[in-house]
Amino acid sequence: MTDSKKILGHRDYRICTNCIMDTSDPQISFNEQGECDFCTSFKQNIVPSWHTDERGYQELMKIAKRIKEESKGRKYDCIIGVSGGVDSSYLTYIATKVMGLKPLLFTVDSGWNLNVAVENIEKIVKTLKLDLYTEVVNWQEMKDLQLAFLKAQVPYQDTPQDHVIFAGLYNYAVKKGIKYVLTGGNYSTECVKPPFEWTYINDLALIKDIHKKFGKTSLKTFPTCSMLKNRLYYRGIKGMKVVKPLDYVPYEQETALKTLEEEFGYQRYKNKHYENIFTRWYEGYYLPNKFGYDKRRCYFSSLILTGQMTREEALAKIAENPYDEKQAKEDQEFIAKKLGVSDSEFEAIITGDNKTWRDYRNTAKLLNFFIHLAQKVGIEKRNFR
Ligand SMILES: [Zn+2]
Fold it and tell me: How far is CA 157 from its chain centroid?
């Protein structure tokens, strides 16, 4: 593990007294009680408008009615992006069994999915008799962009995969004229969003610049969608609507997993995003070792704030290694081989000097303006910085 002093510079180590977010987030701030700004923001902005009781259920049913009315006569009334993970699987359950919708399922084959994730999707599709569209990403382009990101030495190694999932889904929905996109985004497990410095934002300018500097092939078929295209063109002009049903119902991980196991024979896996080999290695090894960022902090803190885990349990869990050294080594070898570089080349690529979004062309200022605007009008309630 990297020396925390090295990451934090002169800043003394400090951890929130309520959750487990700490100064590994360079921009964290604390109030007089020692509570961090994620906690204050949760209490001030999310709690007052977050209803998962009867009131939430009634609101959700109203949304369902509107979706059905606006999609009358159509084969599908909405689209759901599925990964085989618990959020999107439970979302599919709620959309069909509770809301009574007819979704088209959409998934991306980025080349990294584990069998267990693919099998989970297949089980859901079969049990609910739904249609599934799989967007297969051109592997040469995916590989080239991922290697470019690794060479760029930035923390955001999930960007190529995240972008392709988000862009692929939105582009496909608009192309097919499906107005409603249902996402598994939720406060229950994600109310503490990974800090800006850990994940940055969907900034196509940064993606293109990194690829231009370090990529070798051109991205001809790789799905892209800028934040402005999504917000202004897709949502503003084409009328696309994004709904997060999991925020209207009680959504507890353990209960959701049990339901999924009973209904579909769903198989669970160790950590929230470990349905994918690259993500497992990136979140469990690369990010904590190279940058000192442990995304489990956000996940566990979300569970603390929503009453699903105690702070003591979270502290004990975060002290454990996210996954064992042997598995990390095996995964790294697998990743190097798949990306077409030798083990030593890969090691050399990932040990360069750390960089951030500031080292590349970006539109952070403009995108921040839009994020703050969304917070002002109440579309984005989470702490975003
Ligand atoms: Zn906190």
Answer: 12
Distance 70 CA to ligand 1 centre (A): 41
Residue 21 dihedral angles phi and psi, to the nearest 5° = -70, 145
Q: What is the pLDDT of residue 8?
A: 47
Below-50 pLDDT ranges, the chain: 1-8
Span from the CA of 364 to the centroid of ligand 1 (angstroms): 25
Tell me how far the alpha carbon of residue 201 lies from the centroid of ligand 1, in angstroms: 22
Q: How far apart are CA 182 and CA 241, in angstroms?
A: 8
CA 364 centroid distance within chain: 19
Residue 186 alpha carbon to ligand 1 centre in Å: 18
pLDDT digit string, tens, across residues 199-216: 998 899 999 999 999 999
Asked whether the beta carbons of 217 and 141 are under 8 A apart, the reply is: yes
CA of 38 to the centre of ligand 1 (A): 5
pLDDT of amino acid 362: 95
Q: In this structure, are residues 166 and 242 in contact, taking their beta carbons and an 8 Å threshold?
A: no
Centroid of ligand 1 to alpha carbon of 50 (angstroms): 19
User: Helix 115-128 crosses helix 86-93 at what angle (to 10 degrees)?
Assistant: 0
